[in-house]
Amino acid sequence: MKLRLVAPLVLVTLLTALAAGPGSAQAAPTPAATGTTALAGTDRLQIGVQFKGMWSDYTDTQRRAVLDKLAAAGADSVRIDVSWAMLQPDGPDSFSAWGVGFVDKVVAMAVNRGLTPLITLWMCPDWANGGRGDRALPTDPADFGRIAQWAAARYKGKVGAWEVWNEPNDNDFMRGADPAAYVRLLKAAYRGFKAGAPSTPVLFGGTSYVDTSWVARAYAAGAKGSFDAMATHPYQGMADAKPELADDGTREVLDHVRVLRALMVKYGDSAKDIWFTETGWSAHANAPDQPSWSRGVSATTQAQYLMRMLRHVQASYPYVSHVYWYTERNQATGDPHQDNFGLMRRDLTPKPAYYALRDFVRARDAAAPASVQVADPAGAQQPLARLQAARARVRSLLGGGPTPV
Q1: Fold adopted by 7-21+37-398
Q2: What are phi and psi of 19, to 5 degrees?
């Protein structure tokens, strides 16, 4: 999404070398896998939430509290952005012990609460691109392929899916926004991820809006065969528009996902799902001259749109398998639009949207057949009823609270 900067994550990256000390250490052995629910292999619409747990404005106490609340709401997954530059600040042959340990910790926090991580791997270290900044792609895509293989192997059985970069069609997030350059990165990343964890899905990087023109150019450059699912960020260009707004032929309408689906069918990818790895509405008042892209809605409307969007996706787009709400809690950048997408307020008290997500998941789970089995990455089979019971225990401990009127 435009103008959504990640300065706190950049700050963490810049501090890595100092925090790690003069010697960056080789990463520790791969942590033992624990049973997490896979993000693929079920017909139910999977619900995730963006979790900025790698950002420096979080304390560990806040991380745990947020994840507890997301688990209590019944979320299936959290999307976490991880900086390559934080993992390998000094060169291709070493890892930051601090950076690796930080990622280990945040991944474990999510997994231990039954939340399967979707990891967006991006942000290039200076050594890999000649110091052109962390939004510029590496000079040699094979360097990215190697970190992808390492990450996939280390978190095999914990991470449910990998996403290759964030909004690569937007110069704010990938310098140049060149689809051919992105495809070179995607191919190297796919080979690496599959070498490290062959069964873990790899996602095409979620585009800013449903940018079918850019995706078509990526297909033309050879993207087919280098991803397992397509990702997109279907925000409404008129930011307070209802979720059911009909496609107007532009990328800035959620319903344009129908055109994305047709493009995938054209290139022989009809069997692949589409994931909404970000979408949402911001709850704030509007000035008389508020630009269309930054218009807000009321907190009540935000909740209503969340519920309506999820129901609309279920009813209208059977090829959309996962939806991630942006984001878990309000931010504090000083920009009213960027700051108020959260399911929770800054103090972590739930907004109406939190309860809307909880109620959708409860209704979804109540309607699921009792015999549904969800495969975990280690190969075991967990009955859906067991997952529901575990979530019920979490909710009873945390207190679900009544749905606001």
Answers
A1: TIM Barrel (3.20.20)
A2: -65, -35
Separation of alpha carbons 30 and 33, rounded Å: 8
DSSP calls for 181-234:
HHHHHHHHHHHHHHHH-TTS-EEPPPEEB--HHHHHHHHHTT-TTS-SBEEEE-
Q: What DSSP state is assigned to residue 83?
A: E
Domain boundaries, the chain: 7-21+37-398
Q: Which residues does 116 contact at the CB level (< 8 Å), separation at least 6?
A: 36, 37, 38, 39, 76, 77, 78, 110, 159, 160
Longest Cα–Cα distance of the chain, Å, equals 57
Tell me the pLDDT tens digit for each residue of 154-191. 999 999 999 999 999 999 999 999 999 999 999 999 99
Q: Which two tokens stand for residue 214?
A: 């850019």
Positive or negative, the CA dihedral 382, 386, 391, 394 is negative
pLDDT tens for 103-125 read 999 999 999 999 999 999 999 99
Give the number of C-alpha atoms closer than 13 A to the C-alpha of residue 211, restricted to the C-beta side.
20
Q: Are 199 and 375 in contact (CB under 8 A)?
A: no
Length of the chain: 405
Residue 368 exposed, middle or buried by CB count within 10 Å (0-12, 13-18, 19+): middle
